[in-house]
Write a structure and sequence with these properties.
Blueprint (H helix, E strand, L loop, with lengths): L1 H10 L1 E3 L15 E5 L2 H11 L2 H6 L3 E3 L5 E3 L1 H4 L5 E4 L9 E4 L2 E2 L6 H4 L4 H9 L5 E5 L3 H9 L15 H11 L33 H4 L10 E6 L14 H14 L7 E4 L3 H12 L3 H14 L1 E3 H5 L12 H12 L7 H31 L3 H31 L4 H29 L1
Parallel strand pairs: 8-9, 9-10
Antiparallel strand pairs: 1-2, 2-5, 3-4, 5-6, 6-7, 10-11
Length: about 425
């Protein structure tokens, strides 16, 4: 009965339309848009099914006065929904929304096991075993499915415990008796690793990941999506911090092996490649680029969540690089290796400053036909470089001063004056360009 109700509910939803730069893709048949008309849908369902069965199916609930209404997750379901079916021709036994499973009886990470479409994708994807992508939003979920990549939602992983945690431990091999293979290889290393600054999961052993073309019997690796795939931006999705933080604490305090969970944060070059391929509307090449990026730009939970452990998430932009450097500078107890980290972090900040602050202005100047505007952009590029260097020098010497000697204070005052003069000049040029 519940399955028939869910199928009827899908009939009341709009088709899912992928828009924007991803518009060349078509969502699979199990992806639907929002309800066309909530009140009309409830009226239709009440005519065909008993109120008790609608409540049991998770579609409706009773108000305090006894009246029936659709559940809030259906009424406010931006982004649409995804139906999960045991077989292609059966009615769905669960529906995924941005808020989780409609029934409320399972987490998306476990409910997906009963979905034939995802199971088929897990067998088809040629990668380092079975990768299951776990985005935080329904829009990224639909895109991954449209790219023929197996995926589910991360909803609920920020609070998983008890029986649900036991189920995940059993399903994904999260136990304390298996040594962490990533700690013994170059896989998922943090930023301070001497052999490779880019953490990887490529080094997972064949015995762990399984062999064979279809990857039969291989345990799943959960790939938490740490950026906005739909918008092709490095911004961290809402809810990701809660999920990664909770799982990292489970790994640390319950001493469970979560080495088969990683966070995918594409590098700047990875994102540029994806943007180009999306512009080319080449789904196959995009799928290959995604797998390559996961291999080269994925982080262990510890590396992603705990900078103080010495495993820092490699930055993808200038702000991230400065944040990483500031964190290191605030830890004077680090000795030897820590000072090496600071120097390497400073080098990364310099690279990011040139790439994100200076180069865009130079490129803008090169595209200008008006001589005055071209010169203003060129001057702003040089001033941006000066502001960056001035800010770096000021932060370094302020942190290193330690004692309030008069000469040190005078030196800091001079640096501050030079820095703010550069800022004033930069803002003046920016005003000229805006006018």
């Amino acid at each position: 009965m519940n399955e028939a109700i869910l199928e009827r509910l899908l009939d009341c939803c709009d088709s899912y339309e992928i828009t924007g730069p991803w518009g060349f893709l078509t969502g699979d048949a199990n992806c639907r848009g929002c309800l066309r008309d909530g009140p009309a849908t409830l009226e239709l369902l009440v005519r065909e099914y008993s109120e008790e069965s609608l409540v049991s199916a998770g579609v409706a609930r009773r108000e305090a006065d006894g009246s029936l209404c659709l559940v809030d997750s259906l009424v406010a379901a931006p982004g649409g929904l995804v139906a999960l079916r045991d077989t292609p021709n059966q009615p769905p036994d669960e529906i995924l929304l941005g808020s989780g499973c409609l029934s409320g009886r399972a987490l998306p990470i476990t409910a997906i096991e009963r979905d034939h479409y995802t199971a088929a994708l897990l067998q088809r994807v040629r990668g380092p075993g079975k990768l299951l992508f776990v985005p935080c939003g329904i829009d990224d979920l639909v895109l991954l499915r449209a790219l023929k990549l197996p995926a589910t939602l991360a909803v609920g992983l920020d609070q998983v415990k008890g029986d649900q945690l036991d189920q995940l431990c059993s399903r994904y091999g999260w136990n304390s008796s298996v040594s962490n293979p990533l700690a013994e290889t170059s896989a998922c290393r943090g930023f301070n690793d001497e052999e490779s600054e880019q953490p990887r999961i490529r080094a997972l052993s064949a015995s762990l990941m399984g062999t064979g073309g279809a990857n039969d019997g291989a345990p799943l690796v959960l790939v938490l999506v740490g950026f906005s795939l739909a918008r092709l931006k490095a911004e961290e999705p809402r809810g990701l911090a809660g999920v990664t933080g909770h799982l990292a604490r489970i790994e640390r305090y319950l001493e469970l092996d979560l080495s088969r969970v990683c966070v995918w944060k594409p590098s700047h070059e990875d994102l540029e490649r994806l943007r180009f391929l999306v512009g080319m509307s080449d789904a196959r090449a995009i799928r290959r680029a995604v797998i390559d990026s996961v291999m080269d730009s994925s982080y262990s939970l510890a590396a992603f969540c705990d900078p103080s452990s010495g495993s820092l998430q490699a930055p993808t932009d200038y702000l991230g690089a400065r944040t990483m450097l500031d964190r290191l500078r605030q830890e004077p107890h680090r000795a030897g290796k820590g000072s090496d980290q600071v120097r390497r972090a400073e080098a990364v900040v310099q690279q990011m400053a040139e790439r994100d602050l200076v180069r865009p202005l130079i490129e803008k100047a090169q595209c200008c036909d008006d001589p005055l505007e071209r010169n203003l952009y060129a001057v702003s590029a040089e001033l941006a470089r000066q502001v960056h260097h001035g800010g770096m020098s000021l932060a370094e010497h302020t942190g290193a001063q330690g004692e309030g000697r008069a000469e040190a204070q005078a030196d800091e005052d001079q640096r501050s004056k030079r820095f703010f003069r550069s800022v004033d000049r930069f803002l003046a040029v920016a005003r000229e360009l805006r006018e």
